[in-house]
C-alpha cells in the first residue's frame, strides 16, 4: 500500500513539475496535448490549450517524448487511447501557415479536411508528402528576402525537420528497397500514396486495368490476419451517367521483401511497359465511351458474372447486347458499384456538408461512402443545384466520353454489362473483345419462299419498324393495345420457318431473341413473370422474338386440363399488349386455340420443298463451301456439275437435312485434306438415307455379328449352367 501511495505522489509531483517547466517555455500554449480524464472516452481525445493535467508529447510510434519540441509550438502530436492502450498518433496542425500549405498539397486527398479549427493529419501522410513540403520551403526561400514570409519559412523548417528526424529509420530502410523496386509488407503505406494510379488484373475477365487510389491502410481481422486495404475509384457507366465508382483491393500479408511488380496490385509507375499499358488502356477507354446506351455487338472471348463467392467464367462466341441500364434493372441484386446521379463537390475535392443532409436517401444505397459522382448531371439537375444555393464553381459537369482526359480514359472500366443471346446469360463482357457485327444482307433473299409471301413479310416488318418514313399505320381503339406484329410460321420441319425469323433479323439488323419452352417453363405460376420479362426486354431492344415450337402454349383449351388452360390464358393476355415483332413456329397448327386466330397478323404455310427449291438450297450451300475454299481473291469452282446437282435435287430431303449433309461432307473432305466433291456427298447421303429407312421401319436391321469377308462364321458360345451343390 505504501508503495502505491508513494507512486501516486511521485506521479503528481512529476505532473506539477512538468506544468511548471512548460509554463516557462514561451508560446507553448499553442501546442499542448488534450487530455481526457475518463479513460473510457479517451478514444476521442485530442489537444487543448495549456494548463490541463496530463499534458505530454508522443512520437508517431506512441512513445512518450520527455521534452517538448524546442519551438514556438505550432503543431504537436496527439495519441488515442482505449483502456489506456495506444492506438494511433495524429498531428494537430495549429500553424495557420502550415495549414495553408497543406491545404494546397493535400487538396485532392479524400477524407482530409484542413478547414476545422484544429485539424489533424496522420504522420505517415505527412511523410509521404515530404518532397512537396520541402519544395514549398524552397520556393518560400527563393523569394527576395524583403518579400519573404519569415513565419512560413520558420514553421516549415521546423515541420520538415520533425518529419525527417522522426522517420529517419524508415528512410534508411525504404529508399534502398525502392531503388531495387522492392517493398516489405510493413512499408506498403509508403508505396501507395493517395491519388496514385494503381495497376491490377480484372479478376473476372483477366484484362489489365487501372484505378486511382483514394486511401490505403493496414487492417487486421481474426479470420484473415493482417492485410493492406486500398480504397480506389474508377470511371464507370450505369446506362445513364458516367461517373466514379468505388472498388476495394487487398494485399495479403507476406514475409520479407518482394518485387513491387510481383504484387497483385502495384503502382502503374513500376510496370516495366508503362507507356504501352497507358496507350492500350487509353484506347480501350475511348472504346468504352463509345458504348454509351444500347449496342448490338459481336463478342468472342471470356465473360463472367459474380456469385456470392467468387465469379463464374464462361466462353462466349456470338452476338450480345451491351445494355448496362437494362442489366441493372433486371438484376437489381447483382453486386456492382452504383454510380450516383447527382452530387456536388467543392474545389478542394471534399463534399459539401450541406449536401449530405440533402442526399440522405442516396447515402443509404452506399453506406460505406465508396462511390462518388464526377459532378452533377447537366440540364435540370444542375439548375436545381444552383437554385439550392450552390455556386457554379462548385458544380462539375457530368463526364462526357468525348471530353474525357487521358487519365479518365485510363480509369475506364475494363468490362461492360450486357446479355448473350446464344447463352441466354446476363454477364460482364471485356471491352477489348466487343466488336461490330458483320450482317448478312442476303439472308432474307436466300429464303426459298413464294415471292408473294416474301413481299408480305417484308412489308409488315418495315411498317412495324417505321422504315416507311413519316406515315404510320392505324392503332387499336385502346391506345397501346395490339401494336405488335405476330406471325405464325407452320409447316413440316426443315422447310425454312426458323430461317425466316433469322433472315428478318438480318434484314432489319436487329437482335434475334430465340425463346424455348425450357426458358419459359410450364408452370403457370412462373410463366407470367418469365414471359413478361422477355417481352419487355425484346420491346426495349427492338428485337425480333422467336418462340420456337410454341405448341404447348397455343393448344386448344379444354374443360379437363386446367393447367394447360392457365398457360394458354396467360399467353393470350400478354400477347395482346406486346408491341414488338414475334414469330411463332409450329408443326401442329390444327391444334391451335381459336382465340389465337384474331391475335395473329399473318400466318405463313410452308409446303414441302419441291425439286426446284431443293436445287436452289443445294446450290446455296455448295456455293458457300466453294467461297470458303477459294478465298476472296480466287475464282469460285464448281463443287458439282449440273448433272450431279440435278441428281442431288431429286433426293427427298428438307432444307436442314441438306445443310447437315453438306457440313458433314465438308468435314470428311477436310479430314482427308481434300476439296469437297461428289464422292464425299455420296458417302454421307448413303449413311443418311440408311438411317432414314431405319427410322421409318423400312430398312434391314441385322443385329447378328458380321464376320469379315473370307472367314468362316464363328458359332456362338454355348451357355454354361452352373448347378448348385
Automatic annotation (TrEMBL):
Signal peptide bounds: none
Domain AAA+ ATPase as annotated: residue spans: 483-608
Feature: compositional bias, Basic and acidic residues: 31-43
Biased composition (Polar residues): 47-58, 340-351
Residue stretches of biased makeup (Pro residues): 709-718
UniProt entry keywords in alphabetical sequence: Hydrolase
One of the record's GO molecular function terms: ATP binding
Domain of life from the UniProt record: Eukaryota
Disordered, as annotated region: 1-72, 338-374, 696-725
Biased composition (Acidic residues): 353-367
Pfam families, alphabetized: AAA, AAA_lid_13, DUF7025
Keyword Hydrolase appears in the UniProt entry: yes
Database matches in SUPFAM superfamilies: P-loop containing nucleoside triphosphate hydrolases
Database matches in InterPro entries: AAA+_ATPase, AAA_lid_fung, ATPase_AAA_core, DUF7025, P-loop_NTPase
Protein name in UniProt: P-loop containing nucleoside triphosphate hydrolase protein
Organismal lineage: Eukaryota, Fungi, Dikarya, Ascomycota, Pezizomycotina
Amino acid at each position: 500500500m505504501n508503495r502505491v501511495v508513494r507512486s501516486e505522489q511521485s506521479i503528481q509531483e512529476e505532473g506539477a513539475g512538468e506544468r511548471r517547466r512548460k509554463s516557462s517555455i514561451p508560446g507553448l500554449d499553442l501546442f499542448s496535448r488534450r487530455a481526457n480524464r475518463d479513460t473510457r472516452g479517451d478514444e476521442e481525445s485530442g489537444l487543448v490549450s495549456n494548463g490541463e493535467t496530463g499534458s505530454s508529447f508522443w512520437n508517431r510510434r506512441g512513445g512518450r517524448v520527455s521534452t517538448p519540441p524546442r519551438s514556438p509550438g505550432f503543431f504537436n502530436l496527439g495519441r488515442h487511447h482505449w483502456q489506456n492502450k495506444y492506438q494511433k498518433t495524429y498531428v494537430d496542425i495549429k500553424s495557420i501557415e502550415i495549414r495553408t500549405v497543406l491545404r494546397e498539397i493535400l487538396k485532392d486527398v479524400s477524407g482530409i479536411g484542413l478547414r476545422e479549427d484544429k485539424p489533424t493529419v496522420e504522420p505517415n501522410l505527412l511523410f509521404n508528402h515530404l518532397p512537396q513540403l520541402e519544395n514549398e520551403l524552397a520556393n518560400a526561400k527563393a523569394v527576395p528576402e524583403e518579400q519573404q514570409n519569415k513565419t512560413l519559412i520558420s514553421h516549415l523548417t521546423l515541420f520538415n525537420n520533425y518529419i525527417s528526424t522522426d522517420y529517419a529509420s524508415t528512410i534508411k530502410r525504404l529508399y534502398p528497397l525502392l531503388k531495387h523496386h522492392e517493398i516489405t509488407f510493413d512499408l506498403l503505406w509508403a508505396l501507395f500514396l493517395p491519388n496514385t494510379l494503381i495497376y491490377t488484373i480484372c479478376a473476372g475477365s483477366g484484362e489489365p486495368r487501372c484505378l486511382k487510389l483514394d486511401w490505403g491502410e493496414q487492417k487486421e481481422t481474426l479470420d484473415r490476419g493482417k492485410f493492406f486495404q486500398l480504397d480506389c475509384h474508377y470511371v464507370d457507366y450505369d446506362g445513364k451517367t458516367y461517373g466514379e465508382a468505388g472498388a476495394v483491393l487487398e494485399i495479403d500479408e507476406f514475409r520479407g521483401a518482394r518485387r513491387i511488380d510481383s504484387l497483385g496490385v502495384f503502382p502503374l509507375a513500376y510496370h516495366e511497359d508503362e507507356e504501352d499499358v497507358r496507350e492500350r488502356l487509353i484506347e480501350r477507354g475511348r472504346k468504352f465511351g463509345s458504348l454509351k446506351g444500347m449496342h448490338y455487338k459481336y463478342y468472342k472471348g471470356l465473360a463472367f458474372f459474380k456469385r456470392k463467392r467468387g465469379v463464374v467464367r464462361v466462353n462466349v462466341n456470338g452476338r450480345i447486347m451491351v445494355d448496362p441500364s437494362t442489366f441493372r434493372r433486371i438484376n437489381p441484386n447483382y453486386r456492382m458499384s452504383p454510380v450516383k446521379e447527382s452530387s456536388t463537390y467543392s474545389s478542394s475535392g471534399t463534399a459539401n456538408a450541406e449536401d449530405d443532409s440533402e442526399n440522405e436517401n442516396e447515402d443509404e444505397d452506399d453506406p460505406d461512402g465508396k462511390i462518388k459522382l464526377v459532378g452533377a448531371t447537366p440540364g435540370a439537375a444542375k439548375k436545381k443545384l444552383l437554385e439550392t444555393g450552390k455556386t457554379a464553381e462548385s458544380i462539375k459537369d457530368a463526364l462526357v466520353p468525348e471530353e474525357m482526359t487521358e487519365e479518365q480514359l485510363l480509369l475506364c472500366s475494363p468490362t461492360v454489362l450486357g446479355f448473350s443471346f446464344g447463352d441466354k446469360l446476363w454477364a460482364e463482357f471485356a471491352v477489348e473483345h466487343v466488336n461490330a457485327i458483320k450482317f448478312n444482307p442476303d439472308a432474307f433473299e436466300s429464303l426459298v419462299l413464294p415471292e408473294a409471301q416474301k413481299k408480305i413479310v417484308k412489308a409488315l416488318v418495315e411498317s412495324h419498324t417505321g422504315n416507311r418514313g413519316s406515315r404510320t399505320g392505324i392503332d387499336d381503339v385502346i391506345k397501346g393495345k395490339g401494336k405488335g406484329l405476330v406471325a405464325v410460321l407452320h409447316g413440316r420441319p426443315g422447310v425454312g420457318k426458323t430461317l425466316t425469323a433469322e433472315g428478318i433479323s438480318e434484314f432489319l439488323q436487329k437482335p434475334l431473341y430465340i425463346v424455348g419452352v425450357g426458358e419459359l417453363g410450364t408452370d403457370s405460376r412462373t410463366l407470367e413473370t418469365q414471359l413478361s420479362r422477355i417481352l419487355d426486354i425484346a420491346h426495349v431492344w427492338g428485337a425480333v422474338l422467336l418462340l420456337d415450337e410454341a405448341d404447348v402454349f397455343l393448344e386448344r383449351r379444354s374443360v379437363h386440363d386446367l393447367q394447360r388452360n392457365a398457360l394458354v390464358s396467360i399467353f393470350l393476355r400478354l400477347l395482346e399488349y406486346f408491341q414488338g415483332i414475334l414469330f411463332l413456329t409450329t408443326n401442329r397448327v390444327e391444334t391451335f386455340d381459336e382465340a389465337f386466330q384474331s391475335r395473329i397478323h399473318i400466318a405463313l404455310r410452308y409446303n414441302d420443298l419441291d425439286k426446284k427449291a431443293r436445287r436452289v438450297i443445294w446450290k446455296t450451300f455448295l456455293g458457300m463451301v466453294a467461297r470458303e475454299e477459294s478465298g476472296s481473291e480466287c475464282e469460285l469452282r464448281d463443287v458439282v456439275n449440273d448433272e450431279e446437282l440435278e441428281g442431288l435435287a431429286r433426293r427427298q430431303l428438307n432444307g436442314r437435312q441438306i445443310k447437315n449433309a453438306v457440313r458433314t461432307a465438308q468435314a470428311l473432305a477436310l479430314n482427308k485434306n481434300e476439296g469437297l466433291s461428289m464422292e464425299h456427298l455420296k458417302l454421307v447421303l448413303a449413311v443418311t438415307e440408311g438411317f432414314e429407312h431405319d427410322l421409318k421401319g423400312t430398312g434391314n436391321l441385322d443385329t447378328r455379328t458380321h464376320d469379315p469377308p473370307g472367314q468362316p462364321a464363328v458359332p456362338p458360345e454355348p451357355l454354361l449352367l452352373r448347378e448348385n451343390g
